[in-house]
Amino acid sequence: MRSWSIPAGRLFGIEIRIHLTFFFLLIFVLTAGSATQDTTAAFRALGLVGIIFGSVILHELGHALVARRAGVPAKGIILLPIGGITILDESQAIPESDTTWKRDIRIAVAGPLVNLFIAGAAALVLIAVLPGFSLAAKPLVHPSYLLRSLVWSNVYLGLFNLLPAYPMDGGRVLRALFSRRMDPIRATQRAVRIGHVFAVLFMMLGMLISNRAETRADGLWLLMIGFFLFVGAQLEERSAVFHSVLQSVRLEEVMLTDFATLSPADTLEDALDKAVHTLQDDFPVVRGSDMVGVISKQKILDALRADGNGYVQSAMNKIFEVAAKQESLASAFRKLAARNLSIIPVVDEQRLVGIVTLQNLMHSMALLAESRKLRREGLDA
Questions:
Q1: Structural contact between residues 251 and 332, judged by C-beta atoms closer than 8 angstroms
Q2: In degrees rounded to 5, what are phi and psi of residue 76?
Q3: Which residue, of 267, 284, 306, 360, has the greatest Cβ tally within 10 A?
C-alpha cells in the first residue's frame, strides 16, 4: 500500500492513496496546456486532472462496494491515472469455492460500468441543457473542453479497463477464468504476462506515432498508458506472490523459539527491567505451564505512567489467539487482523513452543524468501 504512494484520506472507511504516477499525469497535462500560452491553461489542466481523478475514485469505489456486498471488504485504494488498485481484505473473505471466480468477475466489471454510466448520464444532461453541444467534436479529451472531456474520459476509462490486459479489469476477468483450472498465483502470473504484452505494444505504438507532429500528443498518451499499465501489473504480481508466500509458509518456519516470558506475579517495574534486556516488544504471560495472557512493552510503560507500579496480571491482555505450529502464515495474519493483535503464541500439544510477532514477520519472511531462492539456484546448478 505504501510503496510509491501517498495518503489522501479515507472514504467510506477505505484508505485512499495516490500513486506517484498520478503526478506524472499532472506534469504532462500542465506542460501540454502551457504550450498554448493561455493564462487560464494551468487552471483548465488542473480541471482535467480533477475530472480524471474523480472518475478513477468512483471507478474504484464501484469495485469496493460490490466487493463488500460479496463479503470481501476493501482495505484501501491506490489511484493510478488509468484506473486503480483496490486492496481487498482477504482475511475477512469467505473461503474460496467453485464460484469464487464468478464473484471476482462481478467485482472486476463494476468499475468500468460505473464509468460508462457516468459518461452516459453526463452526455444526456449536456445534450439536454446545452442545445447544439457537440460530443463528437475533436479533441475529445482536452483541458480546453472540460465538459466534453468529462464524457469521453469516462468512456475511455470504462472501455480501456475492459481490455484483457492485467491489471485492467478485463485482465482480472481473464485471471478469474484462468483460476478455474489453475491455482491463483499461476493464474495471476499468466494474466500479468498478457498485461506486459499490451504494455509493450502501447509503448511501441506510442513511439511510432509520436514522431509525427500531428500525432505527437496521442503518441505521448500511449507511451504514458503503457508505462502505467506496466507499473500496475508489477504491483499486482508482487501482491499475488506475497499472498502465495503467506499460504505456503508454516509458522514453525518463522516463529521465534528463543523468547522471554513474564509471570502474572511480576511487578510492572520488574517486567520493564526484563523488557529492556530483550529485543521483544510483546511477551507471553505464563503461570506454571499455562499461558494466561499477553502484554506489550508499550502497555507496561502506559500502566506504569497511569497507575504506578503494579502487577503484570492487572495490565495484561487476557484475550488472545493461539496458533498451531503447522498453521500457515496467512492464518496467523488473519488472527492478528481479527483482534488487532501484535503477537500470536504458537503451541504444540497445548505447550508453548514459540511466538510470532508483527515485529519479526517481515524480517523472517525476507530471509526465508532469500534462502528458498538460494536453494532453487543450487538445485538448478
A1: yes
A2: -165, 165
A3: 284
Kindly list the domain boundaries of the chain, sorted by start residue.
5-162, 252-380
Residues in the chain: 381
Q: How big is the CA angle at 125 (ends 119 and 129), to the nearest 5 degrees?
A: 145
Amino acid sitting at position 243:
H
275 within 8 A of 283, measured Cβ to Cβ: yes
Question: Edge-to-edge strands of the sheet including 351-357?
Answer: 323-324, 343-348, 351-357
Give the residue from 228, 286, 282 showing the smallest Cα distance to 255: 282
For domain 252-380, give the CATH superfamily: CBS-domain (3.10.580.10)
Unique residue bearing C-alpha cell 474523480: 54
DSSP codes joined into one string, 120-135? HHHHHHHHHHSTT--S
Task: Assess contact for 295 and 317: CB atoms under 8 A.
Answer: yes
Grid cell locating 170: 478485463
Q: Which stretches within the chain are classed as H helix? A: 21-34, 41-69, 100-129, 146-160, 169-178, 184-209, 216-248, 251-254, 268-276, 297-307, 312-315, 329-338, 358-380
Q: What's this model's pTM, rounded to 2 decimal places?
A: 0.64
- Asked if residues 106 and 46 have their Cβ atoms less than 8 Å apart, the reply is no
Contact 75, 15 (CB under 8 A): yes
The parts of the chain modelled with pLDDT lower than 70 are 1-3, 25-26, 28-39, 81-83, 89-98, 214, 217, 239, 241-245, 337-340, 358-381
Q: Are 67 and 73 in contact (CB under 8 A)?
A: yes
Taken in order 85, 251, 254, 360, the sign of the CA dihedral is positive
Q: Single out the residue of 295, 281, 300 nearest to residue 359, CA to CA.
A: 281
**What's phi and psi for 36, nearest 5 deg?**
-80, -10
The residues near 261 (Cβ < 8 Å, ≥ 6 apart) are 283, 284, 285, 286, 352
